[in-house]
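ok so heres the complex, two chains, lmk if somethin looks off
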Amino acid sequence: MALVRWKNKDLYDPWASLRSLQNEINDLFETDRSPAATGLFDRSFSPAIDVIEGEQAFTVLCELPGLEQKNIDVSVESNVITIKGEKAVEKEEKKGKFFKKESWSGSFQRTLPLPASVDIEGIDASLKDGILTIELPKKEEAKPKQITVTTK
Amino acid sequence: METKKELETKNRTIPAACDIFQGEGNVVLNMEMPGVSKDGLEISVDNDRLLIHGKKNIKHPAGEFRIREIRDGDYYHEFTIDSTIDRNKIDAAINNGVVTLTLGIKESEKPRKITVNVK
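and the predicted structre for the whole thing:
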């Protein structure tokens, strides 16, 4: 019997690419393109957001690639937080043509109602690498408290 | 089974919104990769393949998700570039989560104007 070249089965998986295709298609159905919560004046462009409730604070993450600090406006009014902004269209491109255009531009707005437990005064927002992070601390009385039991 | 699933989600990649623009003498690729920093971006050219891998680095604070729209996974794109692209003239920049790749077209491939001399 001639020598057969050793092949590590773990290294090459013939189904790997097929599986990634399957994942990709499943992803299409799983992720809803339409936002989960929209306000009355929200525009058609809705950047994706995450809202996480922690013990001490709520955190809102918003995907805003290509936007600068001056183009983003975050405001709170009667317990409703509004993220507003405008993504400028690049006008400098003069000669040439687009082969593909998937990014969006224009103005957007997202509003989120806030629970009463949020401390409006302590809201903090920061922008890094195209991700806007808004920290909404909870009021003291809404934070979980540990009560120690004393023995007598 | 659990570990297998974990591995799959770990390796999951998502495509970034991409603009391809052909200008004069170059091709400009714009990719939206929010959450990718300069250190998390890897761009490589392998013969006629242009590979772009952006590591998404979003720190989720501990807690429960109330709304979850941001997709998990790294950004990964693979493009085929032909011989008209000058391999030494590929520039990349990242700004506010937008990756801009400028691919220069070889001098020899650029349109040339030949003037006709009258004798």
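quick notes: Helices of chain A lie at 16-30. thats all i got rn
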